Amino acid sequence: MGKNCQIPVGGIFIDFFIKSKVFIEYHSNWSDPRNKMNTKEGYMAQRLNIIKKSEYKGIPIEFIFDRKNYKEQVNEIKKKYSL
Questions:
Q1: What range defines the domain where residue 15 resides?
Q2: The whole model's pTM is what?
């Protein structure tokens, strides 16, 4: 997938920021170390909310949780955002 960049956004870190067009969070082995009860949906909602309140408001975020199909998901993201 490339180098994990850990972009600081509103007190959190986002894994990738591709060509200043889209954020990508990659979690092949899902876990939220801060809260074992957090769901993927809760995690995604939290990230979206933080981005909406930051200087990156309006930048989309994509999530990849499936290690087996991550290449296909990356290709879909490339097509979707013309990367």
A1: 7-80
A2: 0.80
